[in-house]
Amino acid sequence: MSKTETDKGQDQEDLGAAGSQLSTAPQEEIAGGLPGLGVIGWARWFWRQLTSMRVALLLLLLLSLGAIPGSLIPQTGADLNKVDDFRKAHKTLAPIYDKLGLFHVYSSVWFSAIYILLFVSLIGCIIPRTWQFVGQLRGRPPGAPRRLTRLPAYTTWRTTAEPDEVREAALALLKKRRFRAHIAGDAVAAEKGYVREVGNLAFHIALIVLLVAFASGQMFKSDGTKLMVEGDGFSNALPMYDDMKSGSMFTPDDLVPFSFGLKDFHATYEASGPNRGTPRTFRAKITYSEGAYGKQKSTSIKVNEPLKIGDAKVYLVSHGYAPVITVRDGRGKEVYHDAVPLLPLDGNVTSNGVIKVMDGYRDGKGNKDQLGFQAFFVPTFDPKSGTMLSQFPALLNPLLAVNAYHGSLGVDAGQSQNVYQLDTKRMKQFKDAKGQLLKKLLRPGDTLQLPNGAGSITFEKDVKEWAGFEIVQEPGTGWALGGALVAIFGLAASLFIQRRRVWVRAVRGADGVTVVEMAGLGRSESAKVPEELGDLAGTLYEQAPGAPDPDGSSATNEATPDSEVVPAEGAEK
Matching InterPro entries, A to Z (predicted)? Predict the structure, then answer.
């Protein structure tokens, strides 16, 4: 055996229980290799590897790396249209991504496997460490090792005070400094910094809380959108949504019961300068009620200032215009009158959409028919620009361009249609006197007469605004936030607080004079332990001052508040 191995064995023998770990982290197996053959042995070895900190950090890293494709590649749960576009644009990559589950990363088998293994690893690591820490709290700090000079921080001096007096003074001093201390034999044993282990365990428990909150949020979440024109109402029921995405465990009964109505939408924009047209404020004034019979309340929803009702949040996400349109048939009967939401195409709210008249319309001969109009709207038209593009997002000079069709809209077959698109396969164009497609630019109050007495379409002077809302319900967000905060504070405690032990031994020497020894041991190399030991030694020295050496000279190894603590090697003089 080498000298180094001999010294390490001697150190371990000298320190005894005092040199045990100052952490609840499981110790790595140093020798022995893998366990013997057998199912139980291999299972035990696999469990130890899975619950080790090294594997937990590796799984956490894999989880972070696995989430990267979910943010770079379109996901079916977020936007199915983008996934379809990606498939069309990448004929070679798309099949590979399908096999790897990259279009649904967070519900893929491999991502779930990493997630579950990390969950099991954390639980398997935390439970034994928690019981071990509880046992340490219920116990007492271990007694002093036989040779305190082996410790990293050490000092000693001689005093005329009695050993019992020194130990009592040291016990009172250490308790005053919030050490857990007791007298063990001829020494005082003290320990401090348990908050470090509390923070360490809190950090790992918070990770589990985060994982559970994330999983429950994904399984029970709902995310729907609703477009509302001023004056419209909404009740939080599944049929009321324009679009809805939800988790695998979500049911309609999980929706928070509430309703709200859009009273008014107000937007302001920069009127001049380089940022002309930039939105300054978006505010939707609403009335809402909680539950089926809740009292009506008024509030405003702004961008990044959602309405919160229980676990549900209502966000303001979009805005546009809804010109009020009136359509009359060949006999002058009003068959359509409504505000038509149009979709913005640019930052100045140039918009387009369609108007569909499905029921009640009769042409000039009294025959039943259906009408369809393609609409193009600009809130601020500038004749000098020479283009049908809005020059400002506010309603300064609105103009509506329409063209007309008649025939079958294709809705009688019972198939769903996009309300913003017009299927003209079974429709005919209205022609003007020159045989061209009938179209006209309408200002508020203008009317377009359809040929052959087929009726008319009027752009009313009233132009309403619409607002798009996103209703998100994610249970567990509060737990996730709490877990994140606890994880931060737990990590800070485990990094900046050091768990350490201090021993004060006072025994009578061969010449009848009391010899005081003080030593400290920290979990890791740190300047805090020697500094703290020096401060404690200086305070205790005032109560047990140094005694002269046998030759009559003053003590040369006195510990004063300004004296530097002697390191372990060669500490004795």
Answer: Cyt_c_bgen_Ccs1/CcsB/ResB, ResB-like_domain
